[in-house]
Write a structure and sequence with these properties.
The complex is a heterodimer of chains A (about 150) and B (about 200).
Chain A (H helix, E strand, L loop, with lengths): L1 H21 L4 E8 L5 E8 L2 H6 L8 H7 L3 H13 L3 E8 L2 E8 L2 E8 L2 E8 H13 L7
Antiparallel strand pairs in A: 1-2, 1-6, 3-4, 4-5, 5-6
Chain B lengths: L1 H26 L7 E8 L4 E8 H7 L4 E2 L2 E2 L2 E3 L2 H4 L4 H10 L3 E7 L3 E8 L2 E8 L7 E8 H7 L7 E3 H10 L3 E7 L3 E8 L6
Antiparallel strand pairs in B: 1-2, 1-12, 3-4, 4-5, 5-10, 6-7, 7-8, 8-9, 9-11, 11-12
Helix pairs in contact in B: 2-6, 5-6
Classes of the chains: A alpha+beta (about 150), B alpha+beta (about 200).
Chain lengths: ~150, ~200
Amino acid sequence: MVLLGKVALGIAGTALAGVGLICSEGMIEVKVVEKQPEVHHVYVLAPAMLVPITMHFIPSKKLGRAASEIQPWMPTIRAALEQLRAGEDVTLVEVREPGQHVLVSKEGGSVVVDVTDTEETVHVSAPIRAIESTVDQVAAASPETQD
Amino acid sequence: MRTGIRVMGVCCALALTMGNLAVAAMAVPAPAERYLHVKVDDATKGESVNVNVPLSMATAILPTINKGNLHNGHVTIGEADFNGVDVRGILEAIRNAPDNEFVTVKEKDQDVRVAKLNGNLIVHVLDKRQDKDGQKVDVTVPMKVVDALFATTKDNELDVAAAIRALSDAGDAVLVTVQDATEHVRIWIDSHSSSE
């Protein structure tokens, strides 16, 4: 009985540690509300760490073009993300037009994009660390293997 | 035994002192982040665009961009763009001169005024052409920023990165305003992370 309890505790502890590890880079949140013609709600909340893990399963040749385009800009992207991560929360860009509002901001450790127009509302939040890891992986793909 | 207790006591006191010093060092507030704001309002269309860039980010990014005329935070300008004018010489003269209005041009289509006031280089342009809707442009640049811009050793280069660093040290200021019949553009720096 005691042995069973220890095994159960071990499994629970491992599962908890696994969940903690997977969620350690934060969560990616996507919320879409379509207002017309019918109201539809889409809500996705996924551990950010899954994105770089998923990137491993994308064939390198599929990323070739993106890699060759992004590589020259990697120092700039890295510098920007590093500064963004270290800096205070800020509204980076806000655009208002009749019927449309776009907001790009840094909140906590995430980049948040909110788009509101007459037909739909979109909210995307992605942790900066996950963006860094993903961009690094795209850049690391061999450009010469492109189609 | 007593010596051991004394040594331990001294160690504890030292540790406490170091801890207090560390806490005090951490308590020193970091310099406030400065932001470059750009706001464009079009009242007739009901549109507005706000861009807020932390100056530390701009300072970090600029040297990494190597494209076109921009390399390592320096912009290369062709000799033709200076039209043979000794810009550095002119700036040196302006820097050493007292506050004054240096250039006043009044034409049928355009008024231009260049002055130095309270350590700032000020340029006012009023475009009276019909298609420009009486566009007014006001540029106020701290002389420190102008100096940093021309601080490179090469004559045909502007050090934009140094100018941004100089802006970080400057006080809150409105750098550029452009106003015409429909649009209003404003560029300024301050310590607020939003344009409001």
